[in-house]
Structure formats: C-alpha cells, structure tokens
Design goal:
It is a single chain. The protein is globular and about 35 Å long. The model has no long low-confidence stretch (mean pLDDT 92). Strands 3-2-1-4 form a 4-stranded parallel sheet, with helices on both faces. The chain is built from 4 helices and 4 strands, in the order βααβαββα. With 93 residues, it is α/β, with parallel strands linked by helices. α3 links the parallel β2 and β3 (61-62).
Length: 93
C-alpha cells in the first residue's frame, strides 16, 4: 500500500514549477512536493515546459486533458492561469 498521496499538478508555469527552478528557494508546488519526496504527475498544455519540469522532477506527463483525469488522484493542485480555473474546476467536480 502506498502511504503517500497521489498528486496531479495542473499547470507548471511560474507558481506550479518555474519561480524557483534555478534557485534553492522553495516557492512552487512542484519543488515543495519534490523536497518532501511526494511524487506527482503533471498536466501542462505547453509540451516543452512539461518536458523540462518532468525531467527535473521525474514526473509523469499527461498531455491530453480528460475531464475525469482528476479522479485518479488523491489531490489535485490547480496551478493554471486564473482564466482557466473555472473550466478545470467544472471538469474536476
């Protein structure tokens, strides 16, 4: 049995993963999870950005958004641009 939650980060831009990408600071969801040894998957429509973050944190990438994607995780972190929140939340609910 896995004692760690399964986590999906939707959006790995600045707050999701990039603010602290080149520093020792912990200012993003990705680095906070990584430093606590909590594995996470990512969904990011920008394929180049997704690959960079995936390589850094050994995360699985989900390239195609499916409305039921969130149900496969214990926790979903919504870190996409604010204008996309309603659409993702509607799908996640």
């Amino acid at each position: 049995m896995n004692d760690k939650p399964t986590v999906l980060i939707i959006g790995v831009g600045n707050i999701g993963a990039m603010y602290d990408f080149s520093t020792k600071a912990i200012e993003t969801y990705a680095k906070a999870l990584f430093t606590r040894n909590i594995p996470f998957d990512i969904y990011e429509p920008n394929i180049d950005k997704a690959r960079i973050v995936s390589e850094r944190y050994s995360s699985k990438i989900h390239f195609d958004w499916q409305p039921d994607l969130g149900k496969h995780f214990d926790m979903v972190i919504l870190s996409s641009p604010t204008t996309t929140h309603y659409s993702y939340l509607k799908d996640l609910m």
